[in-house]
Design goal:
- With about 120 residues, the protein is an alpha/beta fold.
- It is built from four helices and five strands.
- It has a single domain, classed as Response regulator (Rossmann fold).
- Helix content is about 30%, strand content about 20%.
- Strands 2-1-3-4-5 form a five-stranded parallel β-sheet.
- This is Chemotaxis protein CheY.
């Protein structure tokens, strides 16, 4: 059975390219358009990894992570955050998110698959 990954990004092109790369690598992918939509996807199903953009309308990725971690089933689900800011320019409060990895947009799909594979084996 393939591992399930939730992708949360308001950019349809980012969701599409990430989904395509991850499906090609053997993962099952669920999509959400923002943090609020992402929380709706946390409906009791097993999600092995979450990939979330930081800046989104309705609910940003940092708030999403804080809310997701309050849910016992998703408390320890690893998260990869996507940002347009380089690691050197990340605001200090971002370090409190407990994200397992940060990727700067734009990223290569192979870079995403490598990060996912390190966190969860397919």
């Amino acid at each position: 059975m393939s591992k399930t990954i939730l992708i949360i990004d308001d950019s349809a092109s980012i969701r599409q390219s990430t989904q395509s790369a991850l499906q090609d690598a053997g993962y099952h992918v669920i999509e959400a358009i923002d943090g609020q939509d992402g929380l709706k996807q946390l409906n009791g199903q097993k999600i092995h990894l979450i990939i979330s953009a930081v800046n989104m309308p309705q609910m940003d990725g940092i708030t999403f992570m804080q809310e997701a971690k309050k849910r016992p089933l998703y408390q320890f689900t690893p998260v990869i955050m996507l940002t347009t800011e380089s690691n050197q320019n990340l605001p200090p409060h971002y370090s409190s998110t407990n994200a397992k990895a940060w990727l700067t947009k734009p990223f290569r799909p192979a870079q995403m698959v490598a990060a996912v594979t390190k966190l969860i084996m397919p």
